[in-house]
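Today's session is about reading a structure prediction critically. Students often jump straight to the picture, but the first step is always the sequence itself: look for stretches that repeat, for charged clusters, for runs of hydrophobic residues. Only then move on to the predicted structure, which in these notes is written as discrete structure tokens rather than atom positions. Here is the chain we will use throughout the hour.
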Amino acid sequence: MWGGTSPKSFDCSGLTRTVYFLNGILLPRNASDQIFTGKVVDINELKAGIASGNVTTYGELRPGDLLFFGRIRPDGKESITHVGLYIGEGRLIHSSHLVRINSLNPDEPDYYSGSTRLLHARRICSPDGEPYGLPEIKDSPYYFPLPEE
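Below is the predicted structure for this chain, in token form.
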């Protein structure tokens, strides 16, 4: 189930949304919408390393960055199909049938084979923890209704 956050159905975007929700930030429900949040993180060197089987750098990635995977359609447009959360040292936590931790490095035994489909990374918060253009739960009328006047 897309955007699933229940014990019966917990998918990739449900995991990233829940992690940020527990830290006071509201992410969109699906990976295809989450891709438009935060700020772009350059991962060109990492993608080249994954493609060549020789990862030497994780570049600008920081723990908490979202990693987006997918494919390029025949018409040239991207199709985002998966999202994970970078946790540092070349590893991500993601949900694909199970919540798991994998490596982006092909030399590691827990290498995520879907890494070859890595398309983008986005940083959701500034170094001081402020979200880039995303609502915080404390400011949401859905979670904290404004008092009637």
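Discussion point for the tutorial: The mean pLDDT is 90.
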